[in-house]
Amino acid sequence: MFVLPAPAEASxxxxxxxxxxxxxxxxxxxxxxxxxxNFLATIQNVLETKPPPYRVVYRHSATSDSFIVLAAGxxxxxxxxxxxxxxxxxxPVVTELTEGADRASFVVTKVRFLATExxxxxxxxxxxxxxxxxxxxxxxxxxxxxxxxTYYSCALQSGFMLHQGWLYLSEHYFCFYSYMFGSEKxxxxxxxxxxxxxxxxxxxxxxxxxxx
Length: 212
What we know:
Elements: E1 2-9, E2 14-19, E3 23-28, H1 34-47, E4 54-59, E5 66-73, H2 76-89, H3 91-96, H4 100-118, H5 124-140, E6 148-158, E7 161-170, E8 173-180, E9 183-190, E10 199-202, E11 207-211
Antiparallel strand pairs: 1-5, 2-3, 3-4, 4-5, 6-7, 7-8, 8-9, 10-11
């Protein structure tokens, strides 16, 4: 389905399936490869959430690392249908426009219309993701080039203490932050330093909803 256009950067969490100079159909590594696939899949399994494994993005040129997300799909068939519509209705016009700003403006305007008028979507999800990204960057001082992939509300158990907060998964970091009643808890790991990730039990073994 088409989504409200949102900026994104090149990421190891996505691999290209097919592309033109300005459009790329990508597949999440959680659908197809190695350590990052297993890492992300474990978190998604435990927290019972999973972002769409396919997306279509717009880029200003074939060498650009900055993208605009246009569509997301749960299946290859769904995202292929979006790609087909773009190839028939948007891509021919884009090739005729000479200015990069004009191309981007045309694509964003058309897709925004589809997402808001035809699908009835609102901007709430996009606003939440942007807010979470800003909070993550400020809290962990990672800079504006570090992109947030996803985030979850969860709790960190430390001894007998349970710290309610947020788990942030970015392109290079696994982080947790909690601040309640004057007590701050901050945890930050580089993904490359994590050797193993497993499901664990809580509530005295009654629930299988944690990671360690």
